[in-house]
Design goal:
By secondary structure, this protein is α+β, with helices and mostly antiparallel strands. 17% of the residues lie in helices and 33% in strands.
């Protein structure tokens, strides 16, 4: 190979490594808290640039650093669905999620497994997100750890949910 080919191959490798470090990262999911949307053992792609450039919206799947004193998966990362943004009021009555007083239709949640679950009204603080697992029966989420700081989000999941 000539120098030009080697330089081109090196540049391509550099771009791929940079993309892996700062843009897209494959992550193996080890928890069942997002089933049936994302099954334990699935590989998801984490878009690390999205939190900095795209902001957040409800329905989005995010991965964030788990609290130190709680059950931790994925090398300290938790995968959950954003259900409310800063300033919104969240509650759960008899297993039904309410945001700003209106019931939320959640096609990915098996309501039969969460009957009787109640969570009092909470207003999501500024620069925070309220997140829940789709498998509400087993999920450790904002019902347990509170709203998470948006700055703790490591990325959004591409191609799931």
């Amino acid at each position: 190979m000539n120098r030009r080919t080697l330089a081109g191959a090196g540049a391509c490798l550099g771009v791929l490594l940079a993309a892996r470090l700062w843009v897209l990262e494959p992550v193996m999911v080890s928890s069942d808290s997002m089933e049936p949307t994302v099954k334990a053992g699935s590989l998801v792609w984490l878009n690390k640039a999205a939190p900095r450039f795209g902001g957040f919206h409800t329905g989005q799947l995010v991965m964030f650093s788990g609290p130190d004193d709680d059950q931790v998966f994925n090398d300290g990362m938790l995968l959950k669905r954003v259900v409310a943004l800063e300033g919104q009021e969240v509650s759960m009555r008899d297993g039904v999620l309410f945001v700003d007083g209106a019931p939320v239709t959640e096609r990915f949640v098996d309501q039969r497994t969460i009957d009787g679950v109640f969570f009092g009204t909470l207003t999501v603080p500024a620069d925070h997100l309220f997140v829940l697992g789709d498998n509400r029966e087993t999920s450790i989420d904002s019902r347990h750890i509170g709203a998470i700081p948006a700055s703790d989000v490591l990325g959004t999941v591409v191609g799931a949910g």
